[in-house]
Specification:
Layout lengths: L9 E3 L2 E3 L6 E6 L3 E2 L25 H6 L9 E2 L2 H13 L2 E6 L9 H11 L2 E6 L16 H13 L11 E6 L6 H17 L3 E4 L6 H11 L7 E3 L2 H4 L3 H8 L4 E4 L20 H13 L6 E3 L19 H12 L4 H16 L3
Length: about 350
């Protein structure tokens, strides 16, 4: 692996920082995002008109259940709201947020820099490419090496002439089944990781065998497991043996949907969304198996209904409510700090 100019540092939207300054960190969020790529019309034709309604107290219950059938809910583009919501997190003791809004999801480097300055938060910006449906048509004829060049440029020079640099490659999207375009974008991400030393974060499709398949491919391509993150663990892997096998790769494991407690999961209706208590069950299993050093925590807020402004839990949820639950269940303060402070610090540090 080539030595990075910022090896040993964390790259934020305001420049490189000492990893020791990160503090409490949530590792998979979206301060601003256009997530309409996942929009689905309501299953009930009588509710079709609700897709066009703005979120309100009148329809909030429906949106919580059908969160990806509301176009308004899927657009988090208000910088003022994002700043206020991030300030709640800072007020609760959060100091760093990883925004993994990758290419194809409305990434806005200048806005992220303004939010960072306004709140005092370290903001680490994502790069790379989301799932195949967001890829540009030219990817059909572009090589993995060609795609990697643009990822590397975003890390080393900055995004679209702004000079604001990405500090993590991700979220890099993989569908189930894993398609050809996504094979190229994951391989491109690995090439960029090798050249720059940047961390890499994966969004897996909903197939319990897929995370291990992806991680094995990353390892075969020469990727660095020590700063690779497998996301969405709790909504993808339910079997404890499968979870153990993924943990044994040495990759970081992001339990990143805290606060998303509607059991109905419209993106995989034959499956389900665990609640916070079930997430803590998985964490306790991983700690018992000796993998506490790989656990990362986040909310993956990517829709309005999960923000305080719109009746949701907000970005302070883990610190304000989940951590007390952890301590009450007997998870030690040392392990809590490892998951919220020490592990993110290691993961985000450039190799």
């Amino acid at each position: 692996m080539a030595a990075s100019p910022i090896s040993g540092k964390v790259q934020t939207v305001l420049g490189p920082v000492d990893p020791e300054t990160l503090g409490a960190t949530i590792t998979h969020e979206h301060l601003l995002i256009d997530f309409t790529v996942v929009f689905q019309p309501p299953n009930n034709p009588d509710e079709a008109g609700m897709s066009e309604e703005e979120l309100s107290l009148t329809n909030l219950g429906w949106i919580r259940h059908n969160w990806n059938s509301s176009l308004d809910n899927l657009t988090l583009l208000d910088e003022e709201v994002a700043t206020a919501e991030a300030s709640h997190y800072f007020g609760a003791g959060g100091r760093t947020m990883v925004d993994v809004t990758s290419n194809g999801l409305g990434r806005d480097p200048l806005a992220l820099a303004r939010i960072s300055k306004a709140t005092g938060l370290n903001v680490v910006m994502g790069g790379g490419h989301y799932i195949g449906s967001t890829h540009p048509a030219e990817f059909e004829t572009t090589t993995a090496e060609g795609i990697a060049e643009t990822i590397i440029r975003d890390i080393e020079q900055g995004v679209d002439g702004t000079g604001i640099k990405t500090g993590i490659i991700g979220e890099v999207g993989v569908s189930a089944p894993w398609n050809e375009s996504e094979h190229k974008t994951v391989q491109a991400a690995v090439i960029a990781q090798i050249q720059t030393g940047a961390p890499l974060l994966i969004h897996p499709g909903r197939d319990e065998d897929l995370p291990l398949q992806i991680l094995k491919a990353i390892e075969d391509w020469g990727g660095n497991m020590a700063n690779t993150v497998m996301g969405h663990i709790e909504r993808t892997i339910y079997n404890r043996d499968a979870l153990k096998r993924v943990a044994e790769t040495g990759a970081f494991l992001n339990l990143d949907l805290f606060g998303h407690d509607s059991s109905y999961y419209p993106l995989a209706p034959s499956s389900y969304m665990p609640n916070d208590a079930q997430r803590l069950d998985q964490i306790e299993f991983l700690i018992f198996q000796g993998h506490v050093g790989q656990i990362l925590l986040a909310h993956d807020v990517c829709s309005k209904h999960r923000l305080k402004e719109y009746g949701g839990h907000g970005w302070d949820h883990i610190i304000s409510r989940v951590v007390p639950q952890m301590l009450a269940r007997g998870i030690s303060r040392e392990h809590v700090d490892q998951m919220l402070v020490d592990n993110p610090k290691r993961m985000l540090t450039f190799a």
